[in-house]
Amino acid sequence: MRTVPKAQLKFLEIVKEHSERLRTIPFEQLKGLANEPIEHLTVNSRPATIATIVEPLKSGGVRVVVQGFMNMRFFPGKRVALDGFYKYPDETMAPMPDEEFHEFD
What we know:
By secondary structure, the chain is α+β, with helices and mostly antiparallel strands. It is built from 2 helices and 5 strands, in the order ααβββββ.
């Protein structure tokens, strides 16, 4: 049975926590995060990045995607972690459908 490396689990947790924090930010403030710089971090000695993508919707809401990349340990390539949601001016939220994440791989 193959197990998931600890660094990958930790990285997925970090991306999820980042997304959960963004969900608590008021809509107007969240709209202003569209040009946030990429966050660089190290997870168990592996370089990683997390980007916050905020895109306006025709409905007046925003689509928020947290996109993380972490270098693989023994092979070239990167692990990808994604989370996202929609938020609207009335502060309601909706989950982002899984199929939309393919735009960000």
